[in-house]
Each structure stands twice: as structure tokens, then as C-alpha cells.
Write a structure and sequence with these properties.
By secondary structure, the protein is α+β, with helices and mostly antiparallel strands. It has one domain. It contains seven helices and twelve strands. Strands 6-3-2-1-12-11-10-9-8-7 form a ten-stranded antiparallel β-sheet, with helices on both faces. Strands 4-5 form a two-stranded antiparallel ribbon. Strand 8 and strand 9 form a beta hairpin. It is globular, with a radius of gyration of 20 Å.
Length: 296
Amino acid sequence: MTEGNALRRRPVLQGILAAGAASIVPATAAVTSASSASANIALDLKDPAVQSHVFQKLGYSLDGQLGFWHLQATRYGLVGAELFPFWEMHIGSFFTVRDLPGGGYEVSRMGIIFYTDIDTGEYMRRFKNPFTGKTVDVQYGVPKVKKYAPPKPMRAAYDPIEGQEPPPEGALGLIRTGSLGSAWIQGDNIWIQQDHLLISPHLGEKPIRYNDLTTYFGPLSDVLDPSVKMARAGHAFSDINNWPAWLEMGDAPGEYYSRGIGYKSFSYDEMPETWRKLAEREYPDLVKDPMKALLG
């Protein structure tokens, strides 16, 4: 996913968390353990600085270590109220973070996606569209490094290319808005939502519109612990988009929908075997040294 204008973290936030989160909880709250933290601490999760910190630790890292994300999802065609399963998606990505001189941070990330047949599990290069009866070539796109910066809480428009400002609404170019949504503590875990809207105009074609909805979650103790730079985390994902051109749906009504779950890994070997085997076969140079692939 692509994100834009760097959000400046308040320097005081690190000091607050290092002091045991005492300044961002009620004066009467006491932190004695991870379990008591979840029961007694009420973080101000509406504070933009707190939201930003939670998102960075769950979604990425506070330092430059190499991290990985996996997502396994099912892609559907949605027509009316009926879902038609298309294929399984196996998505892996790797990332590293660097602080920016003026504050905030930048993420370098590369994603590699594979589709597999729902019945056979075989890697898909062609797909028979059940709506049109046509067999089409599956278009994956070439994996490349993208530079991300965090979305601002509430709503912020941003462009994923080199951190530039987005073009005006309606102009030829990529339009993206992003937001950090609701955040909450449930049991020993902390959760935060992130939503994206992407409009990608194409000359002579209808714009492609993506709506990505992600909820990140992980141990509250990891987020509160200043010695933990990259929190353990998982995510639940869904998207609702219009038809990609390569499916050759024309003006047919309906949406391109998926849902899935995944987790953050701290090493390549922790990634799912299905994705690793496909990645090693299709992109051996990239996965041989992910950090080199990210930094060049």
C-alpha cells in the first residue's frame, strides 16, 4: 500500500512511553504487568500522536530492521448480493523504516502477489471469467520498491510517488486519501484501523477505484514497551474495487471484492511456505536478499 506526506511524530511521545506511559493515562492508573495494563490503562487513542505511534509499531517498526508482512485472501466477483469466488491470493511484502531529518519516517516496501486456483492450489497465469466465459491472462505487475510515509490521522490526501503532493482532484494522475480510523483496547490487545481510497485514472479507460480497509492488532504490552521497536502484529483486510481492465468486464455491474487475514514476520523463514516457494521460483533475486532489494 502506498502512503504519503510524512506525519511528524511528537518527540515527547517517545519519552512518555519510556516513562511507562504514565503521562498518557489517568493519574490513578497503575501499570504493574501486561495484563493489568490492558485492564487499567486508558490510552488517549484519539490523540493523533498516540495513533501514529501505535500504527508505526504495529504496521511497521520504530527502527530500520527488516520486517515482513503476509496476507492470505480470497478474491471474489460481487454482483448484487451474490459473491462468486475467483481465486486465492498469497501476498508477501518486506519493509524497512528510516527516520526523516525533519521528523516523521519513511517506509521502503516491496510486495509480491500470487494468485492460486481455489480448487487445485496451482499458480494462476490464466483465468476463465465466469461472467463472460472468456479466458484472460492474469496481470500481476512487476514487484518494485515503493516509498511510503504514514497517513495522518483523520483524512489526508497524499501521493505515493516520491512523497509529492497529489495532483488536483480530476487531474491525470494518482489520487489517494488515507486515514487512521478507530483504535481501541480489547483484552490484552490493541487494535487500529487504516483506510485507503485510491483512484488511478487511465487514458481512454474508466478510472480504477480501490477501497482498502485494514485493521491491525497486536499485544498492548509490545506497544507500551519502549524496548520493543517492532511489535508483534496481525491484520484483517478487505477491499471493494471496480473491475480491473484485464478481466474484460466492460460496463458490467458489480465489484471486485476480497477479504483476508495475515501477520507480521520477523524473518523470511517465518513467511508461509506457499508464498516462499512461489517467490523463490518467480523472483529468486529479490527474496535472496530482501534488504538489498529494498535499498538497492
